[in-house]
Design a protein that fits this description.
Elements: E1 2-7, H1 11-27, E2 32-37, H2 40-45, E3 53-57, H3 65-74, E4 80-85, H4 91-96, E5 101-104, H5 109-128, E6 130-134, E7 139-143, E8 147-153, E9 156-161, E10 166-169, H6 173-179, E11 185-189, E12 192-195, E13 199-202, E14 206-209, E15 214-216, H7 222-235
Length: 238
């Protein structure tokens, strides 16, 4: 089940998006609930962190869509965000808040289905993908999307989840890196493997996650990290 919110200050647009979501649900196996908001302020008051997908109008009265998304990301929101706008010029600002893509007005169902349908399929795959973590006397199954980062600690590996759970493993860092290859993880330091989806920003020395966890960035991996992250963030707009 996907929890989805549409935020647009135009009644007709909200009605159109509702109709498109109803049609998409009828044509696919997606199960979803849809909430509607007429302003960024109303969405923020409703705790947007509970949603899997947000569709935000860029140009709204009061708080615009970009600033609304910025506040959501700053508070730790990790959902997929798609902007709805007349102008592609906002794409650069979208990089800052890790938008998935843009929907352009006037919106056809074909464009909606392609962008939103693809996003939901990817989200569904992420929810289903899991990793089997070998421990001393057992094996634990964990969703790949729930992993924020992995670190080595006192000779063993610890998997840190988005829910702040620390799961020790008898696997080596090399084994973890191989197991998570293809899942958008990057070895930013000898002792750290980070989920690129969880990165909010990076500096010359550190990587900062959505929950403000700070992870060291090796100077020898800085250039490669920058290239990998630019590619990942850039792909969200293709």
């Amino acid at each position: 089940m996907f929890r989805i919110a549409v935020c647009d200050d135009t009644t007709e647009i909200r009605q159109l998006l509702r109709q498109y979501f109803q049609r998409l649900q009828a044509e696919t196996s997606f199960q979803l609930t849809l909430d509607e908001y007429a302003s960024g302020e109303a969405l923020l008051q409703a705790d947007p962190s509970t949603y899997d997908l947000l569709i935000l109008d860029v140009q709204m009265e009061g708080l615009n869509g970009i600033d609304t998304a910025r506040r959501i990301r700053q508070s730790g929101g990790q959902m997929t965000i798609i902007f709805f706008t007349n102008y592609v010029q906002y794409a650069m600002e979208g990089y800052e808040v890790q938008a998935y893509r843009f929907l352009l007005k006037p919106l056809s169902y074909e464009q909606f289905s392609n962008v939103v349908g693809t996003a939901m399929r990817q989200m569904q795959e992420q929810k289903q993908e899991s990793l089997h973590i070998r421990q001393k006397d057992s094996v634990t199954r964990i969703a790949v999307a729930d992993i924020a980062f992995v670190e080595t600690e006192r000779g063993h590996v610890v998997i840190h989840t988005k829910e702040k759970e620390a799961i020790p493993s008898s696997m080596t860092m090399k084994e973890m890196e191989e197991a998570l290859s293809g899942h958008r993880f990057f070895r930013c330091h000898t002792a750290y493997l980070v989920n690129m989806r969880e990165i909010k920003k990076f500096t010359q020395q550190d990587v900062v996650l959505q929950d403000d966890t700070v992870i060291p960035l090796s100077k020898h991996r800085r250039k490669e990290m920058k290239e990998a992250l630019a590619l990942y963030w850039g792909e969200q707009f293709l």
